[in-house]
């Protein structure tokens, strides 16, 4: 058994000639919680659907749980569960009918666990799906996914529509369940705070290309933000290759740097800074800086220019 749950090599996929993914290489370690992040349209859902085997790449190799994906992949589908919030369930089914349907699909189905989850989530067996709120429908999908005991769970914006209390509890529950059962979790989301709290490894997609694959801690240590106070900002002081971004307000500058903080603090002290302090740089900011380096912005989305 390899230590990877998913490996994609040089995978490309286009829809009607328009590339959605270009030469993507991706690794998800077994037993990890992996955050797949990217802006709207970056290709996250396409990646997950390829890993599930419901989409087929134009070129490239995909292996999931040590099996090379083939068009006939019923066996692997037993071990992988995909949950996308907003994915339509059968609206005329009652909760119990949906659960019964799922129970017939999955050999590892755990009815007792499903019953406990439905109770905890206050989902009534007799309720008709169309009468559930979108958050309740997402909760139902997550409960069914958990009860199917997958080895790999692919969650696509799993918490859309959930209120903060259920969202936190549900994510924590899934993480605990995954840790207990050795399930690999992939969470594709815009909600970077969730990834920062929960993930071990992170990948960032940008316009169909994989631009970062990293341990979360390594990624967080790869950049720092300094606040530097200096009376004389002489020309050339900010032309160091390690400096990624600068915001200057008079004597104070907030400077984002690549690599460790200490050598840059020493650098600014040596060139005459009056004060140098490290500021917090969270994953959302790191994501923003990485995308800005790639040239991503939504400048066109500006009231004046519409
Ligand atoms: N079935 C399809 N037919 C045509 N184009 C598609 C199809 N599925 C995805 N695309 C296109 O592929 C690109 C990637 O879409 P995808 O849904 O994978 O992105 P995403 O990162 O999940 O986006 P979001 O965060 O907005 O959900 C987009 O340009 C999208 O329009």
Can you describe what's shown?
By secondary structure, this protein is α/β, with parallel strands linked by helices. It has two domains: 4-218, 3-Layer(aba) Sandwich (Rossmann fold), CATH 3.40.50; 223-293, Alpha-Beta Plaits (2-Layer Sandwich). Helix content is 32%, strand content 30%. It contains ten helices and 14 strands. It has helices at residues 44-52, 74-77, 95-105, 111-120, 134-147, 164-181, 192-198, 216-220, 261-270, 283-293; strands spanning 4-15, 18-29, 33-38, 59-64, 67-68, 80-84, 152-156, 184-189, 201-206, 209-215, 223-229, 243-249, 252-258, 275-279. The chain has a six-stranded mixed sheet, sandwiched between helices. A hairpin with a 2-residue loop joins strand 1 (4-15) and strand 2 (18-29). Helix 4 (111-120) packs antiparallel against helix 5. The longest helix has 18 residues, at 164-181. The chain is elongated and about 70 Å long. The chain starts with a strand and ends in a 13-residue tail after the last helix. The model has no long low-confidence stretch (mean pLDDT 89). It binds adenosine-5'-triphosphate. Adenosine-5'-triphosphate (ATP) binds next to helix 1. Adenosine-5'-triphosphate binds next to helix 1. Keywords: ATP-binding, Nucleotide-binding, Transport. This is ABC transporter ATP-binding protein. Residues 6-232 form the ABC transporter domain. Pfam families: ABC_tran (PF00005).
